[in-house]
Each structure stands twice: as structure tokens, then as C-alpha cells.
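Feature request, filed as a ticket because there's no other form

It would be nice if the structure record came with a short human-readable summary line next to the C-alpha cells. Right now we just get the raw output. Example of a typical job, pasted below so the devs can see what we mean:
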Amino acid sequence: MKKITFLLLMAAMAVVFSSCTMTKQVAYFQNMEQVDIESTSMMPEIHIKPNDELTILVSSITPEAAEPFNMRLFSNQNSTSTNTMTNPLYTYVVDKEGYINFPVIGKVKVVGLSRTDTEELIRSKIQPYFTSEEKPVVKVRYASFKVTVIGEVTGSRVITVTNERLSVIEALAQAGDLSIYGKRPNVLLVREGPDGKKMSVRYNLNDANLFNSPYYYLEQNDIIYVEPHKTRARSADMSSYTFWTPLASIAMSVATLVISLTK
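Raw output as currently delivered:
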């Protein structure tokens, strides 16, 4: 009887230990009370990269003066000025050298610039085409800001970002969060810079210092990859044995218990 009690106690301890270990692996931001997140910096400005798609709107107090700088998707030769302003804007694709071909002024190098820098650059170039009293307003927006989340998440997906602001936590949430098999201390970010060179960074979702990371906010075309735990990888390798392996494990456990009780 004492032997049975001892075996049951050991089994219970193993379950408790396993549960504690799993909690440490799964829980996010475990040291939140020890981390100062009030000093977290503002979202850094995103810089334009080759192959980015941009829409650019020029406006002024005289709409007719601004319209030559607004390329649109449809011809409006027979349209009224009101309809002209409602037609969708043309999308500029940044070429591999970092240029866009803008109406009237020609090629403009925008790679490596922020949106606000690009707006000011274009405004300065088109200002000579306006009267001294007119101050044209330039608005630059990303037409294709996307982030990819793959790996051990509930649903891998490509996320379209409409407001040019997305954190790694928001991206993972939109992908349905990590599965139980995802490595929370070792999430991979792959990013391509304006020069075309790729770099990688690791996130630790268990650590609240994530909020202070300069990579907390994502950029266009970022890739988030959640690696699987070793147990997940092993189970994938042994997928052909998924039916028999649990039964064999149970049988082995029962046999071990019976042998121990009969000694």
C-alpha cells in the first residue's frame, strides 16, 4: 500500500512540475512589474523602400493649378472637375534605384525618406509652378503596407495595414495568437532595409522589455515567423505513428505500474 501511495505521489508531483513549466513557457510579459514601459519611445518614422507603392495627392487653393500633379487611374477628358477629383489616384511604384516618376517634375528619389520628408521634397519641387501666394499641400500614403505572419500561429496570414501603424503584438493577435506549440521566447522578425539588405531580430514574448524594443512596431513587408517547440517538430516527423504512439505509451505506463506493484 505504501508503494502505491508513493507512486501516486510521484505521479502527482510530475504533473504539477510539468504544469508549472508549461505556464512559464506560455505566459506573456512575466516581469511586467519590474519593467519601466512609461519611457517607451514613440513609434519611429517608417522609411520608403524599393518596390513600395505610394499614392500622392497635391492640393491647393486653386484646384486647377494642382490637378496636373495628380495622376489618376482613369482619363477624365470628358469629365467635370468634380468627377476628376473623385477618381482614384495613380499608384507610384518605387523602382530599384529608389525613384518615382512624378508628373511635370520627372524623376524624384524617395528611397530612405520618411513620408513627411517626401511630402516636403515634392512640395519644394512643385512650388515654382504655383503663384507666390499659393502653398501647395502634398499628402503621401502607402498603398501596399503589408506584414506576413507565419509558423505556429492559429492562422498564418498577410495583414494589410491601413494606418501605417502595427505592433508585433497586434500582428500576432490578428493571426489568432500563437498556438500552444509556438516558441514564445524566440519569435523571429525578418526585415528588409531601404538598401535591400535583410536583417533578423528575435522577440521574447515572455519578457515585458518587448515594449521597449526599437522593433516593437513593424514596417512594410516585415515577416514574423513563430518557431515550433521540439515536441511539435518530433510529432510532425512521426506523423505516420500518431495513432499507435499514444496507445504504446499508455501500455508501457500500465506495464511499468503493474511490475512495480507486484515486486
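Something like this underneath would help us a lot:
The helical segments are 2-26, 63-66, 81-86, 115-126, 168-174, 230-237, 244-262.
The CA atoms of residues 111 and 148 lie 22 Å apart.
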